[in-house]
C-alpha cells in the first residue's frame, strides 16, 4: 500500500519512520516542535537490532562509520574492582551522539518534508495515517488514550554529559543506591551518565551534587567529575510508561517513547523507537489497508516493548540496590559468565 503520513515529532523514531515510508513511495510530512536540529547532546548506544533497522532505511553503514563500535564492557564496583565483563551478543553496539544520529536521519529527507517550529497538534490534516513520535510527554497519546497513561516516576534521577578525550572502553560502576557509566563516543569525546535513587525533584541537578555523591568512587569516575563542564550537564528525573491498552487508535500509531518510555538502564529506548518505526513502515507498505497495518504493528511491537520496560526497570533496581550487594555481584558475575 502507498499513501500519506503525518509524523508528529522529528526525533529518532519519527525521522526513521519518515525515511522508511518515503523510500517506499509514501508522501510524508514531519512536524517538529524545535526550530532546528540540536547541535550538542550525549551519546546513544545502538544495539545490533537498531543497526538492522537503520540498514532497512539505508543508513546503517553511515551510522557505523560515524560512531564508535564496542563489543564488550565492564561492570565495576565503586572501588573499581570488577563484578563482570559483558559481551554484546550478535555483534557490537555503536555509540553515536544524538545530534549526529538526528543529522544522519534528516539528511535523506527531501525539501519540505521536515517542518520545524510546528507542533502538528491538530494533526487531522487529512493524512491516511498519523504517527505519534512526540516522545515521552506525547500530547497525541494524551489526546487519543487519555492522561491516565502518562509516564510515572521511577524514583531515580539521571545525569548525562561528556568530557573531552576518548575513553578506551565502556564501563558501568554500581555502588550503593547509584550507578555511573562511562563510554567512548564520536568526536573524540567521552560520554558519561549517572543515576541515583531519589524521589522526583528531591535533589538539585548541579555538578556539586554529583561530585559529593560520587567523590569516593574509583579514580576513573573522579577524573570525569573533575573535568565535567557544569554548563553541559543534563539532569532529569526518570519515568516509565504504564502498559498502554494499544499502540494504535483510529488512524494514529504511537511509536518510541510516546508508547513505551523506559528506564535507560538497558540503553534501549532510542533503539526500540527505530525498530518500531521500521516495523510500522513494513506493516503499512505490506498491508492492504491502514486498519490492518496498524493492527499488525500493535501485535508485533506492544508485547516485546512492554517486556523491555519491565526489564529496564528491574535492571535499574538491581544496579542501584542498597541491599545484599555482594550477593548481587556474585549472581551477576555468574549470569554473565554463563551467558
Ligand atoms: C539518561 C538516558 C540515557 C539514554 N541512553 C540511551 C542509549 O544509550 N540507547 C538508547 O537506545 N536509548 C537511550 N535513551 C533513551 C532515548 O533517548 C529515548 O528513548 C529516545 O530518544 C526516544 O525516541 P523518540 O523518537 O520516541 O523520542 P525523542 O527522540 O524524544 O523525539 C521526540 C521529538 O518530538 C518532538 N516533539 C515533542 N512534542 C511535540 C509536538 N507536540 N509537536 C511536534 N514535535 C514534538 C521533540 O522536540 C522531539 O524532537 C536514554 C535515555 C536517558 C534518559
Kindly identify the CATH topology of the largest domain. Answer: FAD/NAD(P)-binding domain
Series of secondary-structure elements, N-terminal to C-terminal? EHEEHHEEEEHEEHEEEEHHEEEHHHH
CATH architecture of the largest domain: 3-Layer(bba) Sandwich
At the first level of CATH, the class of the largest domain is Alpha Beta
Amount of beta strand: 25-35%
**Arrangement of strands in the largest sheet:** 6-5-11-12-13-10-14
CA-based shape: globular
Main β-sheet: number of strands, strand sense, barrel status?
7 strands, mixed
Would you tell me the structural class of the helices and strands? alpha/beta
Identify low-pLDDT runs: none
**From the alpha-carbon coordinates, what is the Rg to the nearest angstrom?**
20 Å
Instruction: Write the CATH homologous superfamily of the largest domain.
Output: FAD/NAD(P)-binding domain
Residue-averaged pLDDT: 92
Distance between the termini: 42 Å
Oligomer: single chain
Features:
FAD-dep_Monooxygenase_BioMet, single chain, 339 residues, FAD-bd, six-stranded mixed β-sheet, alpha/beta, binds flavin-adenine dinucleotide, D-Amino Acid Oxidase, Chain A, domain 2, monooxygenase, 16 strands, Aromatic ring hydroxylase, oxidoreductase, seven-stranded mixed β-sheet
Description:
The chain has 339 residues and is of the alpha/beta class. The chain has 2 domains: 207 residues, FAD/NAD(P)-binding domain (3-Layer(bba) Sandwich); 103 residues, D-Amino Acid Oxidase, Chain A, domain 2 (2-Layer Sandwich). Helices cover 37% and strands 27% of the residues. It has 11 helices and 16 strands. Strands 6-5-11-12-13-10-14 form a 7-stranded mixed β-sheet, with helices on both faces. Helix 2 packs parallel to helix 9, helix 6 runs antiparallel to helix 7 and helix 9 packs antiparallel against helix 10. The longest helix has 30 residues. The protein starts with a strand and ends with a helix. The mean pLDDT is 92. The structure holds flavin-adenine dinucleotide. Flavin-adenine dinucleotide binds next to helix 1, strand 2, strand 3, strand 10 and helix 8. It comes from Rhodococcus oryzae. Keywords: Monooxygenase, Oxidoreductase. Pfam families: FAD_binding_3. InterPro entries: FAD-bd, FAD-dep_Monooxygenase_BioMet, FAD/NAD-bd_sf. This is Aromatic ring hydroxylase.
Amino acid at each position: 500500500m502507498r499513501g500519506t503520513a503525518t509524523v508528529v515529532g522529528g526525533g529518532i523514531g519519527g525521522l526513521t519512520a519518515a525515511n522508511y515510508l518515503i523510500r517506499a513511495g509514501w508522501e510524508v510530512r514531519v512536524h517538529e516542535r524545535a526550530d532546528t536540529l540540536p547541535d550538542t547532546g550525549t551519546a546513544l548506544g545502538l544495539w545490533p537490532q537498531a543497526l538492522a533497522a537503520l540498514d532497512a532505511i539505508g543508513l546503517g553503514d553511515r551510522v557505523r562509520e560515524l560512531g564508535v563500535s564496542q563489543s564488550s564492557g565492564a561492570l565495576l564496583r565503586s572501588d573499581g574492582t570488577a563484578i563482570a565483563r559483558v559481551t554484546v551478543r550478535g555483534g557490537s553496539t555503536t555509540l553515536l551522539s544524538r545530534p549526529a544520529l538526528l543529522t544522519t536521519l534528516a539528511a535523506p529527507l527531501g525539501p519540505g518534508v521536515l517542518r520545524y517550529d510546528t507542533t502538528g497538534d491538530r494533526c487531522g490534516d487529512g493524512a491516511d495515517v498519523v504517527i505519534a513520535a512526540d516522545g515521552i510527554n506525547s500530547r497525541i497519546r494524551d489526546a487519543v488514550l487519555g492522561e491516565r497513561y502518562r509516564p510515572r516516576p521511577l524514583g531515580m534521577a539521571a545525569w548525562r554529559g561528556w568530557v573531552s578525550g576518548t575513553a578506551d572502553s565502556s564501563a558501568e560502576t554500581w555502588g550503593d543506591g547509584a550507578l555511573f557509566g562511562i563510554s567512548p563516543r564520536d568526536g573524540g569525546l567521552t560520554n558519561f551518565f549517572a543515576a541515583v535513587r531519589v524521589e522526583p525533584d528531591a535533589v538539585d541537578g548541579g555538578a556539586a551534587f554529583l561530585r559529593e555523591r560520587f567523590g569516593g568512587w574509583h579514580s576513573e569516575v573522579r577524573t570525569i567529575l573533575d573535568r565535567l563542564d557544569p554548563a553541559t550537564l543534563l539532569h532529569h528525573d526518570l519515568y516509565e510508561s504504564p502498559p498502554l491498552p494499544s499502540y494504535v487508535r483510529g488512524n494514529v500509531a504511537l511509536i518510541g517513547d510516546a508508547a513505551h518510555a523506559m528506564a535507560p538502564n538497558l540503553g534501549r529506548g532510542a533503539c526500540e523507537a527505530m525498530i518500531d518505526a521500521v516495523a510500522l513502515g513494513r506493516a503499512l507498505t505490506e498491508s492492504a489497508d491502514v486498519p490492518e497495518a496498524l493492527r499488525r504493528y500493535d501485535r508485533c511491537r506492544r508485547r516485546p516493548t512492554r517486556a523491555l520496560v519491565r526489564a529496564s526497570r528491574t535492571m535499574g533496581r538491581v544496579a542501584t540496590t542498597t541491599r545484599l550487594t555482594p550477593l548481587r555481584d556474585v549472581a551477576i558475575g555468574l549470569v554473565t559468565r554463563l551467558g
